[in-house]
Structure formats: C-alpha cells, structure tokens
C-alpha cells in the first residue's frame, strides 16, 4: 500500500497538516487549563480573604461590644439587676452570643445568662480554676479560648474573656465572659455567600477541626481537614479534585483558618469547552485538509499516472500513444516534451523500419547477384575447361610425337603452350571452387 505515490503523498501532507494542529491545540488547551487554574486559585484566594475579613470583623465587633459594655459603659457601676437586664438585652438582640457571665476577681460568678435555658442565680459556680478567666485576669487583655463543642448548644463555641478595670482602684475587678456561637458565623457569613453546589467555604481551628460549615453534619461529626501548605489543586474536603485556597485569621491565643474550594471541573469548564472546540476544529480542519490534499495530490499524481500508461504502451510497441494533458504548468510542459519524445521515437522507428526494408531488398539483390555471378562463373568455367583440356591434350599428343617428330624449337613452344594451358585450367578450377564456397556447395573432406 505504501509503495503508491498517491498514498505516500496523502499521508505526508496529512501528517504535516495534523501535527501543527495537534501541537497548537495541545499548547492552547494546556495554557487554557493553566490560566483558568490560576484564575480559579486567585478567585478562591479572594473568596477566602473576603470570608476571613468578615470573620475578623465579626470577632472585632464582638470584642468592641464587650469592651464598650465593660469599660466604657461601666456595667460594674450599675445595680446587679440593671447589669443583668443589660446583659440579657445583649443576649437577646445579638444571636452570636450563647452565654454571658459576669465573674468577680475572686472567680465567683455573679451573673450567668444562657440562651435557651434558665440559670439560677443561687449557688452560681466559681471560675477560679478556669484557664481563660485566669489568663484574662493576669494579663489584663482580652483572651480567646480554643474552640470546643457544646452539647447543650449543639454547636461549636469560643470563649472571650474581657477584663473590667475598676474605675476607682484601677485594678481588674471583674471579668466579662462571653460564649460565641459559630452557627452565627455560618448564618451571617457563609450562607450569605450564595455558593453553588461546586463551591465550598468552611472554617477550621488550629487543630484542623471544622468549626463552621453550611452543612452541620461536618460540625457534628467533628470532621478534621488538613489544610495544604500551598494554594492550588488538591484533594478537597469530600475527597474530590478541587482548586483550594486558605486564609489564616490570627486571634489572641488561637488561629483560625478559612478554606475556600471549588471543583476542578467547574474551575476548568471553559478549558474543557475550549478543548472540545479545539478537537472539533481539528477534526473539521483535518477533513477539509484531507479533501484539499486528495485534490492536490490527484492534480499531481493523475497526470503522472496517465504519462506512465502512455510510456508502458510505447514500451510495448504502440508508438501511436500520446498524452492528452492540456496544462500550462511544469506537468503540462513535461507532457509536451513527452509527446515530442514519443514523436521522435516513432519517427526514428519508422526510419529504422524503412532502412531495414531497404537493407533487406539490397541484401536480396546482392544474394541474387552473387547467385547469378556464381552460375555465370560456373558456366564460364565449364565452357573454358573443355577447350583447355583439348588444347592440353593435343599438346601432349604433339609432344609425344604422335604426328611426327618435332624439332627443339617446336618442342619448346608446345611445352610453353601446355604449361600456360595448365596454369589457365588451375585458375579456372580455383575460380570454380570459390564460386562453390560462396554458394555453400563445396564439401570439405578430411584426408
């Protein structure tokens, strides 16, 4: 199959056409995937940064609320009942708080308010051994606790301890302890993002435990997720192939991390579409190219095939065959030259045939002339030999004295006559033998 010039040319041109298309399509598609992946990473980084800013703002607002209430509004200067009413109003108006507790410097709770249940004001517990309380009391700064799961709240909470400076003594007289609900983070921040099913944003603590997610199951199961060290393409929360980015939120004593991810397929949908378009364009271009290539190859190969057939006919002896190609390109010039060559060959063949006929006639005439000459020489030789034999015979008779004696002069003359006659007879015999040789009638006998 590959011995055909047509097939080889078609394959060559197809390869030369499809290879650049494949290379270009591969490069464009790869660059498309890379750029879309980079854009997806930048988008997820922006989303994680946005959520981290919202979460930081959420904690800052809570800190400011509690700090203003404790040290600006001067809650400790109010009557206990008024303090309780103020804290109850804050708890009722701000769903972010699950619990508000006023603790004295000795660690004894004075007010304890909890969302969803009543707490008796009698026999309130002591927080003297509470680490967060002690840290806030000793450092004089707002302190955050690690995130933990509260069975009563069925939510993950974080404790904020705000030390309250006594305006008269300048010492820390009380500590305002607040428990914040991460359900509020989910409701106010995560659910407000209007994410698609292919996107996900969640918050994890410094141990990798998910503390805020749109799906409460991850929180209830205490799902742990190990955040990759770099943003990019990784395995997501549910094990899928995702584009992931993270943003850390530093808080006093704790660091939270916002993770934003989107499925790799969703992020590179445009690239997949581009790849499909590239495949379709490549196939269409290949089909068009093959049609053009076949047409172009036929324009070259078909005339060569016709010329080859004419050449084979001429080789087989049919010198009347001619190429009927009427083209103005190199192939047309080649066809004209080929026809001229065929004309020259035919003319030369005709001349050779005419010369052969003339030579054949001349040979026949020569053979006839030789035959006539041979017959003439044979007849002449025969006619000459008879009188010569008679002359030689009479000479022998005279020399023998059969007609009387001869003198010496007569003997000499007769001897010369006999010798010349014998010489002439030998020449005639030689001429007769030559004629026989030429006619092929002389037989050679070994002695």
Series of secondary-structure elements, N-terminal to C-terminal: HHEEHEEEEHEEHEEEHHHH
Strand content: 15-25%
The percentage helix is 55-70%
What overall form do the CA principal axes indicate? rod-shaped
Largest sheet: 6 strands, antiparallel
Radius of gyration: 65 Å
Q: What structural class do helix, strand and pairing data support?
A: alpha+beta
List the total number of helices: 9
Oligomer: single chain
Descriptive notes:
This protein has 447 residues and is an alpha+beta fold. Helices cover 58% and strands 17% of the residues. Strands 1, 2, 3, 4, 5 and 6 form a six-stranded antiparallel sheet that branches. Strands 8-7-11-10-9 form a five-stranded antiparallel sheet. β7 (199-204) and β8 form a beta hairpin. The radius of gyration is 65 Å and the shape is rod-shaped. The two termini are 72 Å apart.
Please sum up the structure shown.
The protein has 447 residues and is of the alpha+beta class. The chain has 9 helices and 11 strands. 58% of the residues lie in helices and 17% in strands.
Write the layout of secondary structure elements.
Elements: H1 5-72, H2 80-93, E1 97-104, E2 109-114, H3 131-139, E3 143-144, E4 148-150, E5 155-165, E6 172-181, H4 182-190, E7 199-204, E8 210-212, H5 216-220, E9 232-235, E10 241-251, E11 254-263, H6 264-267, H7 269-315, H8 330-400, H9 408-439
Antiparallel strand pairs: 1-2, 1-6, 3-5, 4-5, 5-6, 7-8, 7-11, 9-10, 10-11
Helix pairs in contact: 1-7, 7-8, 8-9
């Amino acid at each position: 199959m590959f011995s055909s010039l047509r097939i080889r040319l078609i394959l060559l041109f197809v390869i030369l056409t499809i290879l650049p298309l494949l290379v270009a399509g591969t490069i464009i598609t790869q660059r498309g995937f890379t750029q879309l992946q980079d854009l997806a990473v930048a988008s997820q980084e922006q989303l994680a940064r946005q959520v981290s800013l919202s979460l930081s703002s959420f904690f800052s607002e809570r800190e400011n609320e509690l700090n203003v209430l404790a040290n600006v509004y001067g809650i400790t200067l109010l009557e206990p009942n008024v303090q309780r009413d103020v804290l109850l109003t804050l708890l009722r108006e701000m769903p972010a708080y699950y619990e508000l507790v006023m603790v004295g410097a000795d660690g004894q709770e004075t007010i304890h308010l909890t969302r969803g249940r009543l707490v008796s004001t009698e026999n309130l517990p002591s927080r003297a051994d509470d680490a967060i309380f002690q840290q806030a009391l000793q450092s004089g700064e707002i302190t955050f606790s690690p995130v933990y799961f509260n069975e009563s709240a069925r939510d993950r909470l974080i404790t904020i301890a705000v030390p309250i400076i006594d305006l008269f003594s300048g010492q820390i007289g009380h500590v305002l302890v607040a428990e914040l609900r991460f359900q509020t983070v989910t409701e106010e921040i995560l659910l407000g993002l209007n994410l698609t099913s292919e996107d996900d944003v969640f918050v994890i603590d410094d141990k990798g435990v998910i503390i805020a997610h749109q799906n409460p199951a991850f929180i209830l199961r205490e799902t742990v997720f190990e955040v990759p060290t770099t943003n990019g393409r990784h395995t997501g929360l549910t094990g899928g192939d995702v584009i992931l980015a993270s943003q850390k939120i530093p808080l006093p004593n704790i660091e939270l991390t916002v993770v934003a991810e989107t499925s790799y397929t969703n992020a590179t949908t445009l690239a997949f579409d581009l790849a499909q378009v590239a495949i379709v364009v490549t196939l269409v271009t290949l089909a068009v190219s093959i049609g053009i290539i076949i047409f172009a190859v036929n324009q070259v190969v078909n005339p060569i095939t016709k010329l080859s057939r004419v050449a084979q006919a001429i080789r087989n002896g049919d010198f009347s065959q001619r190429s009927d190609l009427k083209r103005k390109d190199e192939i047309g010039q080649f066809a004209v030259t080929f026809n001229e060559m065929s004309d020259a060959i035919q003319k030369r063949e005709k001349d050779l045939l005419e010369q052969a006929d003339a030579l054949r006639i001349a040979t026949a005439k020569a053979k006839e002339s030789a035959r006539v000459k041979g017959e003439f020489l044979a007849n002449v030789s025969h006619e000459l030999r008879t009188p010569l034999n008679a002359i030689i015979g009479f000479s022998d008779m005279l020399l023998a004295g059969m007609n009387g004696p001869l003198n010496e002069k007569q003997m000499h003359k007769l001897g010369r006559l006999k010798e010349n006659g014998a010489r002439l007879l030998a020449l005639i015999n030689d001429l007769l033998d030559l004629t026989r040789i030429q006619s092929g009638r002389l037989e050679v006998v070994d002695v």
